[in-house]
Amino acid sequence: MSKKYIFAVAFAALALAQGAKAQNLQVFYDFGEGRKYVTTTFEMFKGDKFGDTFFFIDHYYADSDQGKNGYSSAINGSYFEIERGLNFWQDTELKNLSAHVEYDGSTWGAGIWCLGAKYFLHSSDYSKMLTLYLMYDIHCGLGNADVPVKFSAVWGLNDIFGVSGLTFKGFCDIWGNNSSFINKDLTVTDTKFSILTEPQLWYNLGGAFDNHLDIGTEIELSYNFAGHKGFMCNPCAGIRWTF
To answer: CB-based burial of residue 151 (10 Å sphere; 0-12 exposed, 13-18 middle, 19+ buried)?
Structure first.
C-alpha cells in the first residue's frame, strides 16, 4: 500500500450534505526529518444514483536525492487513487452500506486493487461523520502481503470546540504488508503489517475569501511504512482552496 493523504468519505459526505464544494486543491510543506519538501493534492468527489466516485492525485516537489532534503519546482514523484462506491439500494435500510472498489498507483511501480465494502455513519446534520472500510488487497506491482487485508476508518468533525469553520478530519489504515528492514547490526527484521494515520485540522477563513480558503495542519503518524521500521512522525502545514 502507498501513502494515502485524503479522507475520501468524510469529504464525500460533506459534499453530499452541502450539495457543492466537491473539488479542492491542497498545498503542504512537510517538516519531517529528512523531508522538507512541498506536496500538492487535488481531489474530486461526485455522487450519483448508483453510488459515488472519488479520486485524488499527489505530486511531490522534492530534490532528486531520493526525494528528500529540499523542495524543488519539479515534480519528483506522484501518487494516485481512484475509488468507486457502488450503491443501488440508496432508498432502503441498507443505504449506508456500499460495495467498494479502489485502485492505488504511483510512479514507484506500486499498484494495488482494493475490493470490499464501506459503511457510513453520521449525525443528522453531518457535523460528525465516520466511515469504516474492510478490503481485500490485490498487489499488481511492488509489494506483497501474507494477509492481504486492509481496514480503514475515516472521520470528520465540523465546528469542533464550538468554533465555526474549525474542522478535524483524518483516517487510519491498518493493512497486511510484508517488509524487511536491515538493522544497525546488519540483522534483518521482517514485518507483516503497517499502520498509517493522518489527522488534519483546518480553519476556514470565511467571508474574506468567500469561504473558499482554509489554513491548517496535517500530522502523518506511521508504523512500518515507506521504508521506515517502527514509528515515524511527520508534521505538515498547509493551505486548501475549495472550488
So the answer is: middle
Handedness of CA 149, 6, 48, 103 (dihedral sign): negative
Task: Tell me which H or E stretch contains 70.
Answer: none
Cβ proximity of 47 and 55 under 8 Å: no
Task: Kindly state the DSSP code that residue 82 receives in the 8-state scheme.
Answer: E
Q: ∠ CA(214), CA(215), CA(217), 5° rounding?
A: 130
The DSSP code for 8 is H
Residue of 159, 153, 125, 168 lying closest to 13 (CA atoms): 125
Q: Given this model, what pLDDT does residue 237 score?
A: 97
For residues 170 and 199, is the Cβ–Cβ distance under 8 A?
yes
Report the alpha-carbon distance of residue 219 to residue 237 in Å, rounded: 9
Contact yes or no for 169/129 (Cβ under 8 A): no
Question: Could you give the CA distance from residue 3 to residue 54 in angstroms, rounded to a whole number?
Answer: 16
Return the amino acid letter for 9. V
Query: Residue 14's pLDDT is what?
Result: 47
> pLDDT tens, 158-181?
999 999 999 999 999 999 998 888
| Cβ–Cβ < 8 Å for 191, 178 | yes
Confidence class for position 35, pLDDT limits 50, 70, 90: confident
The CA distance from 59 to 78, in Å, is: 5
